Amino acid sequence: MNRETPRTRSLRAAIAVVGVFAITAAACSDDTNDAVTTTSAATSGGGTSGGVTSTTETPQPMGDIVATALTNQVFTELAGLAVDAGLVEALRGGPFTVFAPTDAAFAKIPLDMLHAVQDAADGELLKTVLLHHVIDGAITPDAMVEGELTTLAGTTLTVTKVGDTFYVDGNPVGPGVEATNGYVYVMSDVLVPAVGDIVDVAVAFKDCCFNTLVELVTKAGLVDTLKSAGPFTVFAPADAGFEALPASTVNAVVSNMDLLTTVLTYHVVPGKITTEQLTDGQKLTTVAGVDLTVTIVDGVVNIDGNPILVQNVQATNGVIHVMGAVLVPA
Predict the structure, then answer these.
(1) Per-residue model confidence as pLDDT tens digits over 104-121
(2) Cα 301 to Cα 22, 191, 224, 260, 279, distances in angstroms
(3) What is the pLDDT of residues 202-254, one digit of tens each?
(4) Sign of the CA dihedral 78, 81, 82, 83?
(5) Rounded Cα distance, 323 and 71, in Å
(6) Which of 87-96, 140-149, 158-167 has the lowest mean pLDDT?
(7) 26 pLDDT above the threshold of 70
(8) Which phi and psi (to 5°) does residue 188 adopt?
C-alpha cells in the first residue's frame, strides 16, 4: 500500500471530524437554515500593491472558530492540519483572531515543503506554523490597525495598510467573519514564520527545496553575508529551478567563482521588501549591481518575468520569496 501524503492524511482527518462539528455549528447558528457556502467578495489592493486581490472567498459563520473552519469548504487543508497538530480543543477556547489560509493558499506551497513541515520531528514545526496564524483576542474589522501582533506561537506578524487593504507580513487580508469565540479572516497566502536568519530558513527547507541553493551559497562563501544583520530580500530559486537549466550553463557558472557570486547576488536585494511594497514596472537594484524588473499580472508578482511561488517567507534578517526559476543576469 502506498504511503499517504500529508495532504491526504489532513483531508481524511478533517472528514472524520467535520460531521461532529457541523452538528455543533448548526446548534450554535442563529439560523438553522444556514448553508455552507462561499460568496464572491474580492478586495483589490490599492497604492503600491499593483492591484493584488486578497481573495474571493467569504466564510460563513458556523459557530466557534473550529466549526467555522471545519464546515467551510475553502478551509479543508487548514482544518485537517489543525486536527493533525492536536490544536482543535485549544482553538475552541479564546477569544482568538485567526488569519486563515484557504485551500488555494496551501496549494501555492510546494508539496515537498508542506511535507517537510508536517513530517518534522515531534510535530512542533507544524504547530508553530499553524499558531503563527492565531492571535490572542478578537480583532474586529473596525479595530484592525497597522502595527505588530504577537501570535500564539510567540512569533510576530506585521500589519500594514495600502489603500483600503490591510496586509499581514505582506499578504493581503480578505473578508472577516465573526465566530462565537473570535474572528476568522480569509488569507490567500500561508503565513510562514521566521525559523532563523535567511541561511537558517534555507537550511531548514534544504532537503525539500533548497539543496542546490545552499550548496552554491556555501561554495561561493556567502553564508556569513546572508547571516549578517542585513536586512536582505532574497528571491530564492527552488531546486526545480536549477534542474530546469542546461547542465552546460550550471557547469559554466559553478566553475567560475566570480560568475557564481554574480549570479547568486543577483537574487539578493538590500532591505526587507514584502510583496505589498512592489509595484508594476519597479526596478530593484541587487547586491550584484544589476537591476531586477518587477511586473504584476492579474495579481501575480513576477521578477524578471518569473512568478513568485511562495511570497513573504519571514527570516530574522529579512524575507525570502521562493522562485520556481533561476534569475540569470544579462
Answers:
(1) 999 988 888 888 888 776
(2) 38, 17, 29, 26, 9
(3) 998 888 889 999 999 999 999 999 999 989 999 999 999 999 988 888 888 89
(4) positive
(5) 33
(6) 87-96
(7) no
(8) -90, 5
Q: For 155, what's the count of Cα atoms within 13 Å in the CB-facing half-sphere?
A: 23
The strand order across the sheet containing 96-101 reads 134-136, 96-101, 182-187, 171-179, 165-168, 156-162, 147-150
Q: How would you class 86 by CB atoms within 10 Å of its CB: exposed for 0-12, middle for 13-18, buried for 19 or more?
A: exposed
Q: Is the pTM value of this prediction over 0.85?
A: no
Task: Count the neighbouring beta carbons within 10 Å of the beta carbon of residue 101.
Answer: 26
> How many CB atoms neighbour CB 46 within 10 A?
14
3-state secondary structure at position 76: helix
- Domains parsed from the chain with CATH numbers: 6-187 (2.30.180.10), 198-323 (2.30.180.10)
What amino acid is encoded at 259 in this protein?
A: L
Q: At residue 288, does pLDDT exceed 60?
A: yes
**Contact between 236 and 322 (Cβ < 8 Å):** yes
Q: Which three cell numbers stand for residue 246?
A: 542546461
How many other β-carbons are positioned within 10 Å of the β-carbon of residue 293? 13
Rounded to whole angstroms, the Cα distance separating 177 from 183 reads: 6
37-51, 133-147, 258-272, range with the lowest pLDDT: 37-51
**Statement: residue 142 has pLDDT above 80:** yes
